[in-house]
Amino acid sequence: MRAQFVLSEIGVGLRRNLTMTFAVIVSVALSLALFGGSLLMREQVSTMKGYWYDKVNVSIFLCNKVDAESDPACVKGAATEDQKKQIKADLEKMRVVQSVQFETSDEAYKHYKEQFGKSPIAGSLTPDQMQESFRVKLKDPSQYKVISSAFSQRPGVQVVQDQKTLLENLFNLLNGMNLAALGVMGLMLVVALMLIVNTVRVSAFSRRRETGIMRLVGASSIYIQIPFIMEAAFAGLLGAGFACVLLVCGQYFLVNNWLAHHVDVIQFIGWDAVLAKLPLVLAIGLLMPALAAFVALRKYLKV
To answer: What residue ranges are annotated as transmembrane (predicted)?
Structure first.
């Protein structure tokens, strides 16, 4: 009997405040979708770091004839065969080095054509303009400075470049986007909480006569509050459900069916990461409105 009464009161409250309940559902859905998306983006960045940092190399670019005429670092001329052999031998002796690969100018030209063949300047380049280089794989990518300090001033070396530094710019951009999403999520969450509190107060005010009668007949505080708390929890759960739908649709349509086909250089997270976040989104969608309603009712009903 009591359960039937509580359920009937929930239905009455939702019907009386249909517009505000809809606003709560939408705001909760958007805020939790941004929250889930931020968690997934953070996991995506971590996955990309693990994938790319394992593949990055330190590149030691050697001077060629073109550089000897224009680059101050190559004023002593193009790298000689003896200099190349000495650099390779010294690299192989270093404990921080895992492997060393030499790339000729012809190989560099071939790789450039494969990656940037559609570039307007690709047709004007010739193999002799490309730089020879050593691709150095480190056991620990953070030890780049050891290689840089040892070889950057060597005769025949134009520049020592750390690919990890180039990737850091991309990861910083992604982290900035993630922080922006979290900021918008926080704003939407505040809006959702304010809507929940106002909806509960309006609902309690519209039923103040019923709650007054329940006080007179000896109903407990929690019994009076339960219908209002469950209304907020139900609306929040609906919003969380819509947020889960948005996350699933984003993974299916945006990631799997578009980005995965157009961006080949990124290893995207899979369904296991998305499905692991859905229970958390649902739990927050259920508990957050219920807690907000409980706090609002304690102050408003004074029971």
So the answer is: 21-41, 179-200, 221-254, 274-297
